Amino acid sequence: xxxxxxxxxxxxxxxxxxxxxxxxxxxxxxxxxxxxxxxxxxxxxxxxxxxxxxxxxxxxxxxxxxxxxxxxxxxxxxxxxxxxxxxxxxxxxxxxxxxxxxxxxxxxxxxxxxxxxxxxxxxxxxxxxxxxxxxxxxxxxxxxxxxxxxxxxxxxxxxxxxxxxxxxxxxxxxxxxxxxxxxxxxxxxxxxxxxxxxxxxxxxxxxxxxxxxxxxxxxxxxxxxxxxxxxxxxxxxxxxxxxxxxxxxxxxxxxxxxxxxxxxxxxxxxxxxxxxxxxxxxxxxxxxxxxxxxxxxxxxxxxxxxxxxxxxxxxxxxxxxxxxxxxxxxxxxxxxxxxxxxxxxxxxxxxxxxxxxxxxxxxxxxxxxxxxxxxxxxxxx
Length: 381
Hints:
Blueprint lengths: L2 H9 L16 H8 L8 H12 L2 H21 L4 E2 L12 E4 L2 E5 L5 E7 L4 E7 L11 H13 L8 H9 L5 E2 L1 E5 L7 H9 L1 H24 L4 E5 L3 E2 L2 E2 L3 H21 L3 E5 L8 H7 L4 E5 L7 H7 L4 E6 L1 H6 L2 H18 L2 E5 L9 H14 L1
Parallel strand pairs: 1-6, 7-8, 8-11, 11-12, 12-13, 13-14
Antiparallel strand pairs: 2-3, 3-4, 4-5, 9-10
Helix pairs in contact: 3-4, 5-8, 7-8, 8-9, 11-13, 13-14
């Protein structure tokens, strides 16, 4: 049985020859130590690397893309992963000026600009200045909603959106599983103004989500046509205590649209994977039953979303995760072993699980902790 078959059996809630494993995201530091060179893998460090390559010209950007692709493949091969992530964070804006080694300026046509700075230790690439006026009135969000609606109306899906998926499947001779996107649906979490909007202007939230859903529905036939089976959607919407906005809004505005996306996915033979870490037990029936999703990615046991609890209560859901990034980062060897074994044992008992670290393996994680997790996964899977 190959990796693709194991992952497919996890999605169809069957047991296979061993528990399929994955690593959803990892810092460049950890990947570099494992691969033995400066690995072009990671979170926003990849955004910094891409913006630097764009500043340095077409050939530099081409080299960035090729190196990133190969390192992603090598990472999956060296760690013998069944479920493969083919690409990491991107940042497609070309800077107008390089202010110093780590800082870039980006000019807009209207004369405004923003500045991004890379912080090497935590591997973060963040906006440190922006001359665009701050939106402090929810009514001002209507312009963004209109932009989304107009873009959706003229949107035509392009096969190039799935080139990373196609290239990876060919590279691994269709023996490893991978996934693609195009069905994301979430209230923006980049500013608290959107959460104010949930309360003050729910009509704008409703219109915004409707535009995203319509784009997802346009994407689904093409996703099927390129041969994909596993599609990642959703979007971060929870913390370790619950949703970042009203449970009722989630049930009334988000879940019915998930259902439409799920129904369309199933019509075309696709599996709809919802992506977000955090605590979901307060809305579990809505998420795991009413939405029609097939799987939950980034199921974080440190937030109570462990493999056994989800699989025993919701046998229709494939669980992807099971090991906490915070445990790898700060936990003892005994705590790491406990989480790994609990996830693997539950996956063996119930099937329907792909086990790995639920979130990004951070730059501060001791390499010995990561190696211990992988050793245990391979030994007991």
